[in-house]
Amino acid sequence: MGYLDKQIVVVDDDQGILESFDVMLGDEYPLVTLDNGFEAVEYVKSHRPRLMFLDIKMPGISGMDVLKKLRREKIDIAVVIVTATTQHHYEREAEGLGISAYLRKPFEVDDVETITRRVLH
């Protein structure tokens, strides 16, 4: 498996979160950061990354809507929800859509690295 076969996309409207992921994973994996769900759907459809870290609450199209759209279109990608929300119905709904993990903000670097290794290796 080559370097590009381990591509990760991170989708969050918070620039600080995107920068954190770049620091955590950008040296080891090909990483793309996007700040909205519309771009995320188009990027995933055309580039087929293996893993997506996806925020739930974003303006325009929510992370849950992105996830539903990808599942409806049968796009095979591991999705990790990353959110600050404490509303448990989101977690149950996301699990029903086959997510790989659910991370609450603030998260630990070790958790991100462990999930990434588990999904990509």
Question: How would you briefly describe this protein structure?
Answer:
The protein has helices at 15-25, 37-47, 63-72, 88-96, 109-120; strands at 8-11, 31-34, 51-55, 78-83, 101-104. The protein has one domain (3-120): 3-Layer(aba) Sandwich (Rossmann fold). The protein is an alpha/beta fold and 121 residues long.
**Total of DSSP H or I helical runs spanning 4+ residues:** 5
CATH homology superfamily: Response regulator
Domain count, please report it: 1
| Fraction of residues in helix | 40-55%
Sequence of strands across the biggest β-sheet: 2-1-3-4-5
Using the alpha-carbon principal axes, give the shape. Answer: globular
- CATH topological fold name: Rossmann fold
The main β sheet shows up as: 5 strands, parallel
Radius of gyration (CA) equals: 13 Å
CATH architecture title: 3-Layer(aba) Sandwich
Beta-strand share of residues: 15-25%
User: What is the end-to-end distance?
Assistant: 9 Å
Question: Keywords for this structure?
Answer:
121 residues, alpha/beta, five-stranded parallel β-sheet, 44% helix, 19% strand
